[in-house]
Specification:
By secondary structure, this protein is of the alpha/beta class. It is about 30% helix and about 20% strand. The strands form seven sheets. It has a seven-stranded mixed sheet, with helices on both faces. A hairpin with a 2-residue loop joins strand 25 and strand 26. It starts with a strand and ends with a strand. The protein binds ligand MGD (2 copies), iron/sulfur cluster and molybdenum atom. The site of iron/sulfur cluster has 14 residues, from helix 1 and helix 6.
């Protein structure tokens, strides 16, 4: 029997591991590892290993659907296109192009995202965004300001040459498991690991120094570390003078942030703060890895700036083993942002509010009347839908009804739209609210390029045909565009990449032909440029080539524990589920390992409430309540509880309060109460 091996990229997280799908008789028969892959080197985590389980799942969407009463009827593609064109055109005609909003998908390829944002803007709407808003938008704002670029500065394999790795607000052992293999390699070579997290996690088990801080106190911790480094003369004076501006203001701002004062705010012992500061500053090559524990706060942008301040005053940038590494979440969230599926940027991070950007793309796309931005962010779109200014939405590969905060408000907002079209691979909570549902093909059933967290662009090949009448996202977008009277002639993904090469300078040299020979990290300005694995080696893309040190003052989280809501709820992830769970809850090998929504509590808190391990409890916030199974232990300190958000229910509880600049919700801190359900 002939077996063909088709190289693809894992559809789950931003590590971008590669594997081959073995195809026999036109079916995916198994996974073959890729020992020469630059990141995964033949390894995959539990989710990667289970990826094929969703391909032929009986609940896959296999035909377009339209709502009829409480149920759904299958319709043909021409009828679906007619309904979508009518729904979007009517809103546009009655309320103007700015009444349309588009959510693009960081699960989809660069080509799909490029097409989606182009569709939005050619229809005259500036309102296009993706789930980066809920994820790394503070990195985009903060790092663009301080370092002039928001990408991870160094490649993943480079972590192995770090001598000190500071992991703050990231549980990479569960959420980027293949990246944690590179940390183990560094540890084997003698590197020190520091972890700052309110919870003990499989990541903190790797730590030499574990800083178990109170949720939302990262700016205080980072300022405290900067204080120690400055006081003890551990700064890199040469680097500060040569490559940065703003140091004196930071030194002034952290003058009072002594280790003792920091200990009071963060709950971390002063001695540990001093040890961590010394270890990070003194090592010849230190890197900082961070993720949602830093960004998902009303102070997310401040947190990111405080992280980059630490790297800058120690000169821990621009060399192997150093760097500021925002670990990107979804398989293609980096690419979705690069492609301009963002409210404030056209492709290539050209500012949506700059008339020069409009000129550039008007010429590139041979159109006029492109909308000046910024558009509404994902979180603002929901508010605008509720307020009645957004009338129609096109949502591809996102599940805001489960993944946005305060689910009840999201549901009401989406229900109040005149028209909603959702394009997904499963019937999600969001799709349940749609007028029309379009069945997309998933990664293995289509081809395209994906950009992982290190800015590494890889081509993923098509292994099998999609089920039933499902079609690739790119084809569907082109069809929608054509049925709205636009000229979208892209016969295949490569023809979209060809346009990306011409319009996105960072991708100019990342051609389809070159991707056959291997992956390339952007920026890659020409066809003979090797790509740029390490950023900021010779200065920064800011005035005078210098980075900005931006002092930030500690501000507490928006919600504090009170007598009615005495616990702090923090939400996040577990190893075997992914985000709102549409894929992993349907994956038999994964759901069997983690079948229920649970809340992790400290044993002492549970004892005071007479809650036993395995009891069903009720978790309440001012927004609503949900039930979960209590899981007792010592991983969280007294007064803190943790829930994963992979099951419906968690986001009923979370707050809509956002960071003022980046508009990311504060998923990591809200006040709640817990009681036993009898
Ligand atoms: N298994 C799995 N892997 C995934 C995903 C998944 O759902 N499941 N999702 C992907 C996506 S989209 C993303 S964005 C990434 C996210 O990856 P991570 O950022 O690692 O995910 P989280 O679990 O949300 O949060 C990370 C850690 O932040 C800690 N934390 C909470 N509050 C604070 C705080 O105030 N300060 C600090 N310092 N830490 C805090 C939490 O306890 C948690 O351990 O993972 C990606 N990979
Ligand atoms: N409480 C709480 N909430 C959170 C977070 C948290 O830490 N705590 N984290 C936030 C973060 S970091 C993120 S990134 C968001 C994630 O928010 P979402 O992006 O809304 O979450 P996902 O569940 O990953 O949704 C992706 C959807 O894409 C579909 N899909 C997969 N592949 C394809 C494809 O090829 N084509 C199409 N059309 N669809 C496809 C999947 O079935 C799924 O429904 O959640 C946020 N919400
Ligand atoms: S680490 Fe991420 S990319 Fe790699 S196999 Fe696991 S989920 Fe997939
Ligand atoms: Mo994310």
């Amino acid at each position: 029997m002939t077996k063909v091996l088709v190289p693809t990229v894992c559809p789950y997280c931003g590590a971008g591991c590669g594997f081959c799908i073995a195809v026999e008789k036109e079916r995916a028969s198994g996974i073959e590892y890729m020992p020469d892959h630059p990141v995964s080197q033949g390894a995959l985590c539990a989710k990667g290993n289970a990826a094929l389980e969703i391909l032929c799942h009986p609940e896959r969407l296999v035909s377009p659907l339209k709502r009829r009463g409480e149920g759904w009827v299958s319709i043909s593609w021409p009828e679906a296109m007619d309904l979508v064109a009518r729904g979007l055109s009517q809103a546009k005609k009655k309320h103007g192009p700015r009444s349309l909003a588009f959510l693009s998908s960081s699960k989809c390829s660069n080509e799909d995202n490029y097409l989606m944002q182009k569709l939005a803007r050619l229809l005259g709407s500036p309102h296009i965004d993706n789930c980066a808003r809920l994820c790394h938008s503070p990195s985009v704002v903060g790092l663009n300001r301080t370092l002039g670029a928001a990408g991870m500065t160094n490649p993943i394999p480079d972590i192995a040459s770090s001598r000190c790795i500071f992991i703050i607000g990231s549980n990479l052992a569960e959420n980027h498991p293949v990246i944690s293999r590179w940390i183990h390699r560094a540890k084997d070579r003698g590197a020190a690991v520091i972890v700052a997290d309110p919870r003990a996690t499989p990541t903190s088990w790797m730590a030499d120094i574990f800083l178990q801080l109170k949720p939302g106190t990262d700016v205080a911790l980072l300022n405290g570390m900067a204080h120690v480094i400055i006081k003890e003369g551990l700064i890199n004076r040469d680097y500060i003078d040569r490559s940065t501006r703003g140091f004196e203001a930071l030194a002034e701002a952290v003058k009072e942030a002594t280790a003792e004062r920091t200990a009071e705010i963060t709950g971390v012992a002063a001695e540990d703060i001093v040890q961590a500061a010394r270890a990070y500053a003194k090592s010849p090559a230190s890197s900082i890895l961070y993720s949602m524990g830093i960004t998902q706060h009303s102070t997310g942008t401040d947190n990111v700036q405080a992280v980059s301040n630490l790297a800058l005053i120690c000169g821990q940038l621009g060399r192997p083993g150093t760097g500021v590494m925002p670990l990107r979440g979804q398989n293609n969230v980096q690419g979705a942002c690069d492609m301009g599926a963002l409210a404030e940027f056209y492709p290539g991070y050209k500012k949506a509010a700059d008339p020069k950007t409009i000129q550039y793309f008007s010429a590139a796309w041979s159109v006029h009347d492109l909308p000046l931005g910024p558009g509404l962010t994902a979180t603002e779109m929901i508010e605008a839908a509720a307020a009645g200014t957004i009338k129609a939405m096109y949502i591809m590969g996102e599940d805001p009804a489960n993944s946005d905060p305060c689910s009840e408000n999201v549901r009401q907002a989406l229900e109040s739209l005149d028209f909603l079209v959702v394009q997904d691979i499963f019937m999600t909570a969001t799709a349940q609210l749609a007028d029309v549902v379009l069945p997309g093909a998933v990664w293995a059933e289509k081809e395209g390029s994906f950009t992982n967290t290190e800015r590494r662009v890889q081509w993923s090949h098509k292994a099998i045909e999609p089920p039933g009448a499902a079609r690739s996202d790119g084809e569907i977008i082109c069809d929608v565009a054509r049925s709205m009277g636009l000229q979208f002639d892209y016969p295949h993904a490569a023809s979209v990449l060809d346009e990306i090469n011409r319009t996105v300078p960072q991708y100019a040299g990342i051609t389809r032909e070159r991707l056959d020979a291997g992956s390339i990290a952007w920026p890659c300005p020409t066809a003979d440029h090797p790509g740029t694995p390490i950023l900021h080696c010779s200065g920064f893309n800011l005035a005078d080539g210098k980075a900005s040190i931006v002092p930030v003052a500690f501000r507490p989280a928006a919600e504090a524990a009170s007598s009615d809501y005495p616990f702090i709820l923090t939400t996040g992830r577990v190893a075997v589920h992914h985000n709102a769970g549409s894929m992993t809850r349907r994956s038999p090998s994964l759901i069997s390992r983690e079948p229920d929504l649970y809340v992790e509590m400290n044993r002492e808190d549970a004892a005071a409430l007479d809650v036993q391990d395995g009891d069903e409890v009720k978790i309440t916030t001012i927004r609503g309540e949900t039930a979960a199974i209590a899981r007792l232990g010592d991983r969280v300190k007294k007064g803190v509880v943790f829930m994963p958000f992979h099951f419906p229910g968690t986001n009923i509880l979370t707050t809509e309060i956002t960071d003022q600049e980046a508009r990311i919700p504060e998923f990591k801190v809200c006040a709640c109460n817990i009681s036993r359900r009898d």
